[in-house]
Each structure stands twice: as structure tokens, then as C-alpha cells.
Amino acid sequence: MSQLKQMSHIDSAPPTPGKFKMDKASYFNRVRWHTSLAKLAVWSFVFLGAILIFFLRSPASSPVPADLSRRSLRTYSWGGPVWEKRVRASAQVRSRNGFAVLVTGAAGFVGTHVSAALKRRGDGVLGLDNFNDYYDPSLKRARQGLLERNGVYIVEGDINDEALLRKLFEVVPFTHVMHLAAQAGVRYAMENPGSYVHSNIAGFVNLLEVCKSVNPQPAIVWASSSSVYGLNTKVPFSERDRTDQPASLYAATKKAGEEIAHTYNHIYGLSLTGLRFFTVYGPWGRPDMAYFFFTRDLLKGKPIPIFEAANHGTVARDFTYIDDIVRGCLGALDTAEKSTGSGGKKRGPAQLRVFNLGNTSPVPVSDLVSILERLLKVKAKRNIMKLPRNGDVQFTHANISYAQSELGYKPTTDLQSGLKKFVRWYLNYYSGGKKAVE
Ligand SMILES: NC(=O)c1ccc[n+]([C@@H]2O[C@H](COP(=O)([O-])OP(=O)(O)OC[C@H]3O[C@@H](n4cnc5c(N)ncnc54)[C@H](O)[C@@H]3O)[C@@H](O)[C@H]2O)c1
Ligand SMILES: *[C@@H]1O[C@H](CO)[C@@H](O)[C@H](O)[C@H]1NC(C)=O
Fold it and tell me: What is its quaternary makeup (predicted)?
């Protein structure tokens, strides 16, 4: 980066400007001409040298495609023996029959919790995250700090960086990939649609391309979303229900991911499990989600917007506590069969699954506010508003019987007790000078 800056500096400061005064003696003109030529030569060498140094010093770093949001216009540097040693140490398996798991989106909300849980039980874990600023990156850095203290290293990079992914698989033959990196959020899609295509479609394809070509191929568990149920009105949502009427670009990219997963399973024998998360909440959560910013706004005395559907219809969510989601993710990894391909070719049929991970008890958003009022001991200024038609659906409710039978998934935390833990974390985190809490 500093070299780049230097280069542009050189660019904008050209050598002696070519002004020749014809009334001076030709001798002086020639001397001047020679010196400016010499200067030009010197600067050219400096310039070439700078380019050379730039490439020599970062042999393995590759910039992400430049046609994207400003946030992804970054160059990460990686590679080198020290870096490889760190990667290997983090991915070191410590339990018998443990996995070596690459967790994408590890600095994210779910990624942090899943990484910590895997590490705790003795699996090797390596994180990957681009630390984008969709929401406050300092929260991602704090989660990174938490994982670091638990022996998990997060490589800073983009899932679109094919060279980086190949390098990671070269250093560690990952048995599993827990793919959680994505552009989340429903409303932001109208502001920055490209970021959804970049991370949820292009990035996913890039990851699958690398996974299909390595030997052995890893098994992949990845996060889809309950939003694929879109405008469905039949509840509870079951895995076999239609998912062809998404209400947001976010939902459409997750649905696309499910179809892309089908393709890579079909052609290359990759073992793929998609998890449709239902509104996950908890400590270290995402500041763009309602329970999080309601808490912030309640404490500030700001009015809380509560959406209402047509005819005063209740807007409700099947809020799912993070620990339950983590158990579902681990259950999916534990039951994932091996991929069957090798040498980039399918050798037999491979596992392809999709599961709902919800809580099976939808709660009206107004009840969420009431619980927060009690926990925070403040009175909310409720601002009832019509649900805008920009992506949010009225109701989500998961049928989890399939996950129950296949993964042993059984959520145990109700919204009241889960929010209690969230609020405790929130108050601690934001009052303690952003000091990490465990
Ligand atoms: N939290 C929920 O309620 C919920 C619900 C349904 C689905 N999901 C899905 O679960 C997954 C995890 O969600 P979360 O709540 O932890 O979100 P999050 O935003 O906290 O985590 C995602 C992480 O991925 C990283 N990331 C994004 N694009 C990347 C890229 N191109 N390369 C590398 N890293 C990138 C981000 O920096 C972030 O840290 C996502 O796929 C999300 O779509 C979440
Ligand atoms: C839940 O899904 C299962 C299939 O996994 C199905 O047999 C059952 O009928 C569904 N239950 C409801 C109430 O829709």
C-alpha cells in the first residue's frame, strides 16, 4: 500500500518541466536538456524499482476484483513462513477423529460462536473474514480478539480470492468448510445490491470451485436463510415447501446459493449441507438486527418503530438463540458425509441436504420490545408503522422436525432467557470501554 502511494506521488511530480527558452545559448539548452533527461532516467529507475519492490514483497497477495462496493477495494497481504505457521497452528486438530475446519465469516456473529465451539471440543479451526464495514468493524475486531485468545487465527481476506483459498488448502487439508461469510441484511440490498452478488453468489462459487478441485474434497456446511420462504403463507415453513418467491435480493441470493450447491453436488460430488437460519440473536450479535438496535435505542430514549402488516396484522419472528444455532451447525458438521469427488471429478453420489434451524415459536415483535423494556428497566416509545414492502416478510416459523431427526437438533432457549443473556453482554460490552467480555 505504501508503495502504491509512493508511486502515485512520483506520478504527480514529473521531472523538470520541459520549458526551453530559445533566447539562451544553445550550450545551456543542451546542458538543461541533458540534466532533464538524466533526471527522467533516474525517476524512471525509481519508479520501476518501486513496482519491482511492490511485487517482490507481496508475492501472494492479490487484490479483489475492482467492480464492487468501495468496501471490497482492498489489498490484503498474506503468505510467508510465519503466516503459514500461524495458519497451521490454528488448524491443528487436538482431539481424536477431530476435524480441520475452515470457517468463513469467522469474525461475524455466528462465525465467532461456531469457531469457538469447534475449538473448545478439539477441532482445528482456521477463520477467514474480510472485516468489511457493513456494520461497525470494531465489533468484528473484538470478536477476533476473543477467538485469538482461544487459539483461533482469522486470516484477513475475501472468499473471492482464489489464490488465497488455494494456498489455505495447500497449507491445511481441511476436512470441512463451515461457510458463513455472506452479505447479510434484507434492506441494505436496495442500497448496495452488488455486495450481495459479490459475497453470496460470486464468492460462494469461487469457494466451491476451489473445494471441488482440492484432494481430498472437504464436506461443506453453509448458511442459507429462512428468507428463502419469501412470501409463503403456509406455516410452519418446511424444507419441502416452495422457495421460488423471494421478497428481497438477499433472499434471492440465498436461494441461488441453494441451487448452486445442488449443481456442485451433482457434477463434482461435493457433500453439501445448507442451513436455513431463522433470526439468530444473542451476545456478540449483529448491530443491524432489530433486537440489537432496539436495545441501543431504548437506552437512548429514542422511539422504537414497530412494524404492523395490513389490517393490523402481527409481525412475528421465530427468534433463535445463538447457542441453539451453534449446536445445529455442529450437528450438521458431525453428520456430514465425505465428498465423493477427486481430481475435480465426481466418483459417486454425494450427500445434499438442507435444514431449517429455528426455534419453532414465533414471537410478535411487540413482545420482543416488552421483554427488552423489562430487562432494561425503561419504557419504550412505541411508534407503530406499516411494514414496508422492501424485503421483510410478515411472519417466520420453522418446522424443525427434519433437523431434529437428522441432526439431533433441539432448541432449548426461549426468547426471554436468551435476551437476558444478550442484554447482560450488551451492557457489559458497551459500558466497559468496549473491553471484551467472555
Ligand atoms: N444472523 C441471522 O439471523 C441469520 C439468519 C439467516 C441467515 N444468516 C446467515 O448466516 C451467516 C452468518 O451470519 P451472521 O449473522 O453471523 O452475519 P455477520 O455479518 O455477522 O457475519 C458474516 C461475516 O462474513 C464476512 N464476510 C462477508 N463477505 C465476505 C467476503 N466476501 N469474504 C470474506 N468474508 C466476508 C463479514 O465481514 C462478517 O464478519 C450468513 O451467511 C448469513 O447470511 C444469518
Ligand atoms: C414438518 O416437516 C415434516 C418433514 O420433515 C413433515 O412430515 C411434517 O408434516 C411437517 N409438519 C408440519 C406441521 O407441517
Answer: Homodimer.
